[in-house]
Amino acid sequence: MAGRVLRKIKERVRNLQLQKAKQHLLIQTVSGHQPLQHVKEGRIHQQLNHFSRQDVSTFPQRFFVNEAYWQRPDGPVFLFIGGEGPIYEFDVLAGHHVDMAEEHGALLLALEHRFYGDSINPDGLKMENLADLSSQQAVADLAVFHEYISQSFNLSRRNTWISFGGSYSGALSAWFRGKFPHLVYGAVASSAPVKAMLDFSAYNNIVGLSLMNEGVGGSGKCVSAVRRAFAAVEAVLMGGNASKVSADFGCCQIAKDPDDQIELMQNLADIFMGTVQYNEEGVLMSIHEVCGVMTNGSEAETKLCPLLFGISQHSLPGHISFTNTYYGGDNPPTHRVLYINGGIDPWQELSVVQDRNVEEDEAQTIFIKDTAHCADMTSRKITDRFSLKKAKQEIEKHVARWLKTAAEEKMEKRTL
User: Fold this and answer.
1) Is the pTM for the entire model greater than 0.90?
2) FRET label pair with 22: which of 53, 93, 316, 389, CA 20 to 30 Å apart?
3) Nearest-angstrom CA–CA distance, 310 and 391
């Protein structure tokens, strides 16, 4: 399946981030702090289909709570939204949102996405239930979770909610604010692909431009070398010498079948795509390193839609158009949503990278020219690039301003 290697790279990035979080917590433990003691795990039973009165089926959705920094009873609530993977207790213990929660006395929450991690419906992942795996259901999950937590912790309108997410969950953060502005006061959306698109060939264009970017170790010579390498592999495969290519790349079997050859080329492309998307994350090589070495498909994915989600291929354009109409695409009518993107992140093409609303009294976007995917979500580090440090400071200013504005609005209501 196309993208398999890229998914493995993403998993390695996530695992590396967890290891770093564990090391950070270990240092805190040695210094006398016991952060894990403040984390509690819970389950909420969510409707499998929020939009059907006839379907009463439910599934258990996992969440974590960290009350260590919470200034009861009126302190804000910071919600970390899970994406296409499991959540961990470290999601309420480490990260830039946790740094800010400590400063503002916030209650920390993390909600796992339906059908990922331990949040699986009772029937497992049966084909007929995957139709309920959608962003609309996920946003509805967030609204129900908001009510559940509000009741569990006796929260009120005095508690200001701010949501956080990165990549797909960054889009969920923006959409949650857009669809339920009365529940969440502000949203931070890091590397959020909010615009739906069927043919995302622009991703590869950004990969190419990033490999040319001298500021992060790329060059024109590097891109030329990569193109020549792919052309050479393709020529050998077209010439019928699949056994040589398979031997050169250590394949477990000879890629004789055309589909196998396409998958091989996709897996090779994934290495460069992953290098760019997760540049300087410590996984595989950085752009600088891979360029040093080099210079010294979407059809398969769309076939899954009718199989898993009951969406025919001919209706895909209509569904994509509906998604962009429903959420607003890359020109959403949202207020107090901060979109953060990196200059060498291919997903920027589907996000909001320029301020569109001239009536806004503050910027809606932060663009970090020399960072990759979701780089702003990690805790502050001495080794952060200057541009990344500056961006994190801007994010902190936005969050602080939102909390201040929310407090002022509440005071005004009390005096009326």
Assistant:
1) no
2) 389
3) 41
